Amino acid sequence: MLKNTIILLLVLSTASCAVVASEPSVREKNKAEVNKIHEANLKKYKGNPNMLVLPGLLADRKAKRIATQAEATGLRGGETAEFFLVAENSAHDYEALAVSFAKPSDVYNALIFIGMEPGRPIDYEKFRFWPKGERVLMTFAPVDSAASNEQIRAESLILDNRPGKPLAESGFVFTGSIMVDSDKQPATKVCAADIRDPDSIASNYNEPESILDVPWQAPQGEVYEHQVVNQKYPFAAGQLLQVVMEPEYKNEKKRVVDLFLGVYAKKKGSGEEKKQNVQHPKERFAGTDFSEVEFSLKDVKNRVLNEKTELNAVLRIFTSLIEQGYDPFVTLRFDDNLTLKAVRELCTVLASIETEKSIRVEPPFLHHLYYKAFLPDEEFRDRAKRISQPWELHLSVKDSKLTGRLTQIEQIWTDDKIWPDLKITEYDTPTSEALRKELDQHGPGLSVILVFTDPVVTHGQFMSFLEPVLLTHPIIHVFLEEYWKSGSLITIWYIAAMVVYPWLCFCPCALARQRSYKNSNHLAIRSHFFTPAPPGAQDTQGNKG
Question: What tens digit of pLDDT does each residue of 40-86 get?
């Protein structure tokens, strides 16, 4: 009897296991449903050139609309989220709102199919601190109610717990990920989001390999744990969703506007007075106030946009563009005849208005520095406050010529001290060629140089002296000697207030975001300046310099 009972239990157990094994998972059920939708779409739109049918995705060229299927991960309200949508092969579904049944590259191709063009992602080493491209609006809804009014803007699904509000409904930037070498097909380029973690389609931090990025500066380390799932819109784990993507502008309008801002020194005097100024450069070049500087704002067709040459005229153009829904991406060019003092003052003003609600500064031209190189952290003057020790270059004017002294600082660590001793070695560098030679002989060291120089040195003199070393040492901090100890810093902020605040009267949105420099970009740049980076500063066309 006992033997028969045991046999019966074994048979029942085996049958139970067989039933469990044959029961499809939630993912398998959802994939089966998505395959049904795909097969139906293939039949329905066969031969229709305005419809793109791909697994998990349907794109309508005329309607400029993409519908993809995705599976909710079941993240609960208050849990950290870093992605709105990731690929099925991603290892980051535990911090994503949903997993897409369409590949990232298919989403990329679908966006192009409906008429969009990819922009470019951030790249700190190339001084690209802003995601650049046209905007995409994205909504989430359960598949069974996707045709109703239950579609939810993606930004509403995430709360920023610092202000306690959902992310601004600003859309997403079509940056387009990057192309990388295939690990299966040599000499073939593939979309990074298809084959490399995090396999992101849409992220809520600046992820360079994501297809879509947020339109503001959001370094991962700064937003992590501050952006959480909104408790108001929970999706159940395994729930099949429809994610809809559409261009922000469905007409021919483009949000991105490329502009070029030239800043020039006014030459003083004429005739005999001008001849005297040639012999006295300090009288010839721009000084401390904006009356000695003029501005020229041009578009990509080289058309001058400002009738008046003062800064306020340029700011009014920026404001007009922003109010019309454009993003001005501005490339700066400083005149050789500007003094470094004038350059710094101008950079201070520009930094105060560079926000996601205003202008975005582009990478520098060839043989120019990124503009925030002229706005260094003054704490780095103190060697004891530096984590690591870059090169120092001290420049001065002798007999009307620029000359330098290169300083190498070596940290000597001992067991009996918390902080290292510093070994200082100095090398005379009377010319730019001598500077290059000393760096080659004693370097390379960190790819960073802290430059200490006289404020009256001109931008042209300065860049000519540094040009031979920019390939190997592209990260430059420019400190103006005696400048910071005087009333010049007060003068900077006085000028900034006089110039910026009248503009802010008719662009109040910028005032609320002035802190973004300190909160995001400044920290990213500060970290980058003191991290060894591959050589090769880039201009806006990617040319090394």
Answer: 999 999 999 999 999 999 999 999 999 999 999 999 999 999 999 99
For residue 322, the surrounding DSSP H or E stretch is helix 311-323
- Which structural domain range is residue 140 located in? 26-247
DSSP assignment of 81-133:
--EEEE-TT-S-GGGEEEEESS-HHHHHHHHHHTT----B--BGGGTB-S-BS
Q: What is the pLDDT at residue 444?
A: 84
Q: Count of domains in the chain? A: 3
What integer pLDDT is reported at residue 8 of this predicted model? 52
The residue from 319, 335, 361 where one domain ends is 361
- Examine the domain organization and report whether 282 and 210 are in the same domain: no
pLDDT value at 183 more than 70: yes
Alpha helices in 324-372 (DSSP H): 340-353
Q: Strand, helix or coil at 145?
A: helix
User: Parallel, antiparallel, or unpaired for β 401-412 and 391-398?
Assistant: antiparallel
Same domain, 118 and 31: yes
| C-alpha closest to that of 290 among 265, 270, 326, 308 | 265
pLDDT of residue 269: 55
Q: Residue length, the chain?
A: 545
Does residue 9 sit within a domain? no
- Which tens digit of pLDDT belongs to each residue from 135-148? 999 999 999 865 55
Residue 33 inside a domain? The answer is yes
Q: Quick one: 59 exposed, middle or buried, by C-beta within 10 A (0-12, 13-18, 19+)?
A: buried
Which of 288, 388, 382 has its CA nearest to residue 338?
Answer: 288
Work out the pLDDT band at 522, boundaries 50, 70, 90. very low
Tell whether 341 and 418 lie within a shared domain: no
Q: Does the CA dihedral 439-445-449-450 come out positive or negative?
A: negative
